[in-house]
Amino acid sequence: MKSKSSLILALFLFLALGSKSQGASEDVVIGKYHILNSETLGEDRKVAVHLPRGYEETKLDYPIVYLLYGDCLDTYFVELISILEGLNYRNLAPQMILVGVHNTDRYRDLLPLEKNGKYEGVENFHTFLTTELMPFINKQYRTADYNILIGPQAGSCFGMYALMNHPATFNAILIESGSFTPPMIRDYMTKKATTFFSDQNTLDHFLYVKLENQFTPSYEYTKSLIRLIESKQPKAFRLGFHLHDIAQNNLRSLPGEKGLCALFEGYSLAADYPVNCLKDIQSYYDTLSTDLGFTLNTSDVTLMMEGDKLDQDGKSTEAMEVYEFILELYPTSLAGLHRAAEKNISLGRYQKAKGYLQRFLAINPDEVYIKERLQVVEKLINQ
After folding, report:
1. What is the CA radius of gyration of the chain?
2. DSSP class of 127
């Protein structure tokens, strides 16, 4: 399998830099294309990859979200980037790598049965994912051993097929059920779900189903499929769903935000969770990591909030420990550098404070307030 890569120049940012440079512009890059020459499929397949903010400056591993219909860059792909970044900023989910898989013949690849009643196409596509695409992504990027599939439209059928035929491929599957329409597909789903879930005593997996429009042909069928799964739900299997009884429109949106919030329930520390030092935070996320089956990265938002609480409670040493841990995980965190500098100033550690302020200015040299704080610290050092 050969591959080629290129940048995705998706947006243009026009920067007004004064009268002399008015109209100048820079490209905003939201990701990178990779073109894989697939031996399994006998064709080139394009994928788009978006990395979380700060990826290049950390040494962390990240869970991967595989998005079907990844060729819909201006809709699904950009929408999911917004969802992923927004959830992490709001401290509701960890940062993740997004891989958008482009379609060539979506019905051949994603529907569990072809018109002749066979399923060679979907099985070949699954083989491409597991033997070509996933190894490529794991080699190119720092990935955690946790794979999430998001399948809109016909991708929902592939999601159910993968779950019931190859449950080890994905740890979590999020689908919207608008393509459970052909009777042949429904018959297959019902029969397969009946036998598959009956045969599973324990299934450590997560499935989330989204359907928003009661007037879509598959609405009632999807409700019956969910009831079937609930009646045979194995131990450790987590099932979530979002069914609206009021029709809004025919626009199929991703099952991303609510599904990911449900998947990572508990990622944000409860307000009343007792934190007296950094080890308390680490212990909480160690337990959550064990429950999910991979090592979660504690968010910088959580660490800053808990560090500030410790500082407000007069636990300066403990707060400083948290701020330093932020910079261990996220070396270019400006908020972390600022907090570490101010805490060291209050503790009289002026040389250390100077170092943090200089690191801040190396990243953002135009921050006037930090320049002023550096001048203050240098005067204190010279006294």
Report:
1. 24
2. H
* Digit-coded pLDDT (tens) for 352-364: 999 999 999 999 9
**Angle in degrees, 0-180, between the axes of helices 300-312 and 334-346, rounded to the nearest 10:** 20
| Best CA proximity match to 330, nearest among 146, 50, 96, 56 | 56
Which domains occur in the chain, in start order? 2-263 (3.40.50.1820), 278-382 (1.25.40.10)
Do the bridges between strand 43-50 and strand 202-211 make them parallel or antiparallel, or are there none, so unpaired? Answer: unpaired
**Residue type at position 319:** A
User: What is the distance between the alpha carbons of residues 210 and 258, in angstroms, rounded to a whole number?
Assistant: 9
Q: What are 169-213's pLDDT values in tens digits?
A: 999 999 986 667 778 888 889 999 999 999 999 999 999 998 866
Find the farthest-apart pair of alpha carbons in the chain and give their distance in angstroms, rounded: 86
Q: Which of 23, 73, 75, 24 is nearest to 50 (CA)?
A: 73
| Model confidence pTM above 0.85 | yes
Q: Which of 161, 83, 156, 160 is nearest to 123 (CA)?
A: 161
The secondary structure of the chain in percent helix, strand, coil, rounded to multiples of 5, reads 45, 20, 30
What is d(CA 175, CA 248) in angstroms, rounded to the nearest whole number? Answer: 19
Q: At what angle do helices 316-329 and 278-292 cross, to 10 degrees?
A: 40
**Cβ neighbourhood burial of 75 (10 Å; 0-12, 13-18, 19+):** middle
User: What DSSP string describes 182-212?
Assistant: SHHHHHHHHHHHHHHHHH-SEEEEEEEEEE-
Of 173, 172, 163, 171, the C-alpha closest to 193 is 163
Residue with tokens 């100048």: 24
To which H or E segment does residue 353 belong?
helix 350-363
